[in-house]
Amino acid sequence: MKTRLLSVILALIISVSGCLCIFASAEDNTSSAYDGTPVIMIRGMDFEGLYVDEGTENERNCFKGIDAGQLIGTIFKALFKGIFTNSTEKGVQVLADYFNDVMGAMSCNPDGSSKYNVGVHEYPLSLANYPDFVKSLGGNNEVGFMKTAVEKYGAENVYYFNYDWRIDPYINAERLDKLIDQAISDSGKDKVNLVCCSMGGIEATSYIYKYGYSKLNKVLFVSSTFCGTHVTSDLLQGKVVINADNLYNYANQMFGQGNKALSVLLNVLYKTKILNGLVNGVNKLVPKLIDPVYKLFLRDTYGSMPTVWALVLPEDYDNAVKYMFGGEEDKYAGIIELSKQYQEMQAKRNEMLLQAQEDGVYIAVIAGYDRAVTPLYTGGGGTGDNILEADRMLGGATIAPLGTTLGEGYTGERVSPDNIVDLSGVIFPETTWALKGCPHVPLNSGSDCSEFIFTILEYDGRFTVDTDARYPQFMKSSSAMNLEKF
Question: Is the confidence at residue 315, as pLDDT, over 60?
Fold first, then answer.
């Protein structure tokens, strides 16, 4: 039973998974100067940025946070409940009740609308109008980028698109269009630059699909979901499975590198095949647990969120709808209809973005690889940035499984020096950068990665992988986002 409940916890975890040194010898042939074009940061998914009754005296965070003591107590309670009732579902119900209490306020109705009165802190004007917010900006990820952008360009030229990432991205597109118009009006420019991080990628794609790209100058997809994700497709098909190799790689990268004792323990478990035995036992129990987990928690807390369906890969869509809503299509007709619209957008995505590029919109793609992703789904054996899969973030790259290469004798026009990534077939081969070892959303203030992004934004012209010798198509990144050549 302990093993059963472990697999339940792992499945629930899935639901919330929702560098460059300055080379003295390198020639810098860039022409950089900020021209006053407004910069809009579209942030990624933020669990702690959703609020029930936002803007009122009753405002509270949708995500209550997980207390270790309460979670352990809940696990034991679920264990005893399952044993004494001889019912897996009743044991799962205890855990589902706990997680629904912790994050149930994020749930959506069968038509895709929010079940509760949920909102976000909005910033409909330039950051110059929010001095307290600017003062509070930290140095990491999207926030770190905005902090540096304010320092470089002035708060009057920087805008922050914060949004409810659960809901219909076409609704978010309406708000983004208003923010773009505001930035254009404020600046006197006729276009803006978008920096789209993580989930922000699908929001930007939805905006372009609905409103076109006439107001866009540059679009940078950073660790972005603009091409969907394997984890979403697999989760919505119930493809929950653990691979011992993937689990070892992930645990060792995430927890073992800074803890010698834990690293030794992981190595012992892996080399003695004990880990394989544990994983095999869990995988045998997963099919029995999937139905109650989805029925009691995932379907309405995750599966009814519209944006989630915009991330489903086209080849997986029909199976995902059948798995999530089979037999209850009438009840979930609303979210199913929305999901069809997103699939229509995804079918036209490449053509749409390539046309935007041809018409003068600069589009760049930057993402990391060679970090393990969550090893709890079928596609979890790939390489990414610990959060998302690199092949999707890079726009359709060919990538060897984590810990392997593309093989001896592999040939391609754009293969990484370590023979792991081939960018020959991506959407934008001349403006796509793959950063080995780079973490998710590598925009920490003062980092090489961040400076790389600003170099692209400031460049007068089309910045490609051949433009600046400091920034080749393939680079290595440290966890601190410092870059260096291979």
Answer: yes
The dihedral of CA 107, 392, 149, 481: what is its sign? positive
Whole-number CA gyration radius for the chain: 23
Q: What is the 3-state secondary structure (H, E, C) of 205-227?
A: HHHHHHHCCCCEEEEEEECCCCC
Task: Report the interhelical angle of 68-85 vs 88-103 (nearest 10°).
Answer: 160
d(CA 89, CA 241): 19
Q: List the one residue out of 208, 223, 145, 216 whose CA is nearest residue 362.
A: 216
Cβ burial of 107 (10 Å; 0-12, 13-18, 19+) is buried
Say if residue 307 is exposed, middle or buried (CB neighbours under 10 Å; 0-12, 13-18, 19+): buried
Rounded CA-CA distance 198/367 in Å is 10
CB 383 within 8 A of CB 370: yes
* Residue of higher predicted confidence among 402 and 467: 467
CA triple 374-301-122, angle to 5 deg: 90
Q: Could you give phi then psi for residue 32, rounded to 5 degrees? A: -110, 130
Record the pTM: 0.89
